[in-house]
Amino acid sequence: MVLEVKKPRPMWEILFSTHHTDVGLLYIILSLVALMIGGALAIAIRTELFLPGNQGIIPDPNTFHRIMTTHGTNMLFLWLLPFASGMGNYLIPIMVRYKDMAWPKLNAVAFWMTPMGMALVWLGMADFTWYATPPYSILRAPGPAAEMWIFGIKILGIASILGAINFIVTILKMKHPDLPLMKTSLFVWATLMTSIMILVAIPTFAAALIMLFTDRLGVSGFFNPAMGGDPIAYQHLFWFTFHPEVYIFAIPAIGMAYELIPKFSRKPIFSYQSGVAAFIVLAIVGFTSWAHHMYATGMNFTEKTVFMVGTLSAVPASAMHVFNWIATMWGGRIKFATPMSFVVGGLVLFFYAGAGGVVNAQMPLDFLTHDSYWVVGHFHLFVMGLITFAFLGFLHYMFPFITGRMYNEKAGMVTFWLLFVGVSMIFLTQHVLGLYGQPRRVFDYIAVEPLIIMNQISTVGAWITAAGSALLIGNLIGSSIKGKPADMVDPFQIGQVYYDQTRKEPHH
Amino acid sequence: MTSPGRMMRGLIICGVTLAVGAAFIVLNFDAMFSLPPPVARLAATAPPPPPPAAAGVTTITILAGAATQGNPDYDPDDAQVPIGNKVVWVNADTAPHTATSGTGPEDASSGSLFDTSIINGGDKSAEIELKDVKVGDVIPYYCFVHPYMVSQLTIVEAGAAGSTNQSPIEAAITIPPGASIQGNKPYDPAEFEIKKGNTFLVINTDTAPHTVTSGTGSDDPNSGTAFDTGIMMEGDRIEVSTVNLNVGDYDYYCVVHPYMKGKFKVTE
Amino acid sequence: MGIPLRQALLVAIPLVVMFSILQAAFAQEAGKVIINRVEVWGLFYKGMVIAFTIGAIVMGVIAYVVFRFRESNPKNASRTSMEGRH
Amino acid sequence: MGHSTVEWVYVGVVVALLIYIGASAWDVERFLDHPPKDAKVVKVTGQQWFWTFEHEDGKKELGELHLVKGVPYVFEITSRDVNHSFNIPDLTVLMDAVPGRINHMWVMPDASGEYLIQCREYCGFSHYQMRAKLFVEEAIPVSGETEVSNIPVSVQEAKPVIANN
Prior knowledge:
Structural class of chain D: alpha+beta
CATH superfamily of the largest domain in chain B: Cupredoxins -  blue copper proteins
Low-confidence stretches of chain B: 45-54, 160-166
Order of helices and strands of chain B: HHEEEEEEEEEEEEEEE
Oligomer: heterotetramer
CATH architecture of the largest domain in chain D: Sandwich
Shape of chain B: flat
Largest interface: A-D, 67 and 56 residues
Distance between the termini of chain B: 81 Å
CATH topology of the largest domain in chain D: Immunoglobulin-like
Helix content of chain D: 10-25%
């Protein structure tokens, strides 16, 4: 059943459409563009660090700091969040059996704020890292770039709050009356929990951004020590938002993994209740551990203990997800098409990220790992390992649904292996690099033999990942143009129902 | 079904937007990074740079942030005052301070030798005459508003401090407060001329340490060969003689903040 | 098995917590001079032993599951119960 | 679906393990966070892109710090402009230098030699070069008195624990 029933609509009709599938498509296109240009910055950073000294790829420290800040901000707010809301836009209305999102126009508004934020962040390229920690961001960060970043992130924050409200109302209020919440798919639960966390977490940083801006103008002194402010207050506001935010990045990816693993294992989920329980526990416990990012700012012993306990309490929830997936795969007949390979690769890297996290959480080990490359390796195993792999797996799974065509399976598997080997090389090596004491965000490092070797392994891994990404984009664009039409009933021959709703209300 | 035509149009839309954005970034890359934060500029303009003091006056700066206990307060902390010199305090902090002789408010003879009374943020005290003191005297003083700010003056022989070589001082470069912040004015005047054989004086009135080192940057092979003042803390004054410089243009920069650059011309 | 085990676990966990905190709290009082790096690296290596043992177990299980239950495994020829339902 | 007891056992094992890890970390941190009484105070000040030190006897050092082996020291760490972080990787010392606030961290160097001091918190243009050198010297008693004189030990002799220069 070909998706495109009517005459294909003109471009502008899609651009200005408010239908959830169109807005979802725009979100996904924007996020893939952001992934590619943000990835290019990462390759520039890694190539510059191939050797100590200045290789001229990034001429001076200022440019390096601007590239590093934009890479961080772009990947988090313009790749992870938009892709998650893009896939959410596509599937939530279908999964709750409603014709569209609760407020279609609000949905389009929330999307169109994202490119505005993207323009502000990219055209300015501020240099105070994506933490924007004062007093550097107040007293020293130069140029309109800093103010542009602040307003860009302010707009993106509001956009994600609007999207979250839209999702919550769609799932809770617009759900089909005879479809109980406990029967909806776990992806619906993931999106619901993410949206609720967004509502609670983002406003804190919205306030911190305004305080930062007025401090820069000199009219207030919230975080400016010269005016009696306390820079540590900003770090509390920042991390109160951003530790739950890292769970906000991760939970949609976990939801997508729950979508794929049962289908490709040809087996039902091991325990639906355990999945829902783990989502709810993580959403609550995620708010208790923010200050493990601030162990080194001179907290006293009791305060550190409280936040260590808060951090460790979030580990069982993730462990339950890992158990659920492995138990689901047990006894199945698993078809390792590209989507399933990406999700299982993501599961493996998720375990390494979690194990590293338990080390970070321990107070004394923070003296080793704080602001070092161990931390860089750790969080990239989450954002690039679990989340990006689950996203790419789900993107391949949704490819026939969106374009009606099938991607090239062999190219997909080669992309997976390139990315898996590349990501493992880069970020597992960076753990050891951090233990050797190389600080984070450095334009150059001491020309000492162990550091050079590990930086080189990491950079070669980056080049392999770059090759994988190039093949990914080639596969997606090439197959969208001339991929063979997909069998819409069972495109992956796993003997299971694809999204059967597509046959009743086809769209596009 | 996504048709090739529509896919092409989609790619063009993305491509054109990215190209426009890239062009903007490339053209305005440095412009986006040129203005220091307003709060930094405010602080820079608040304390007017102290006029070069007359020969017989010793300048002591009250540093920005001195009001916060534990922060450094008077600079130089143990000022060497040549006998017969007058002393002036420059308040580079935003908070008001004083310089009152004695060890603290509980000291009975506090304020007997001298008392500058309140010096507001950015102001300069009157020039204090030290009467009936002899070489080697150590006079403690403190700030009446913040008694934990304590320091002292040591009287030394006349002419001990101050210029050592004979050649006349023809020009003076002041490094203005806030010079370390990128985008602010690094050296004042940015360019000047000096006759060969004369000396120019470098005064660092910023809170951060700076240097005046010949060359265009740290990657310049012969940087620091012609002249190098070395690290100058706040309030330091160093004379650089042009005796063994030959006629022509000289670039100099700050080793600590390589984006601070200046130049001068040595004339016949 | 069933119900009593769950109650047992709900009792066991707080006990472990109480025991470990009390035991540590009454240990020798803080302020003692120790060598920082020896203590920190010691704790790190203890953590690594735990991490790598669990890592080996979990990776072993994943490898087994992936290898044993892959589609092309001859033992997997018969279709699972879920299949065939359209 | 699956038998849920297996999952309960799994969660129980994970939670017990986390409690053990948390307790052992708590036990080590207790000593790291409470400096010994007789520790000597060293004032550490970070400012944009170099470190300055001041010993109890008022001796000031810029870019270099000389300590004595076997003597516990408490660093009083602060900054004069933006956030920095005082870090000696080989002695696992790491404490942020925040302007307007004094952070404390103690260490007792147990091996003489030359160690690297670096900045561990992004602080701008030359953050990657903001380094200093720590020289830990043998405690050599001077002819019978207990007073310790700091005669620097030759660097080649002492190997730092982790290989960096």
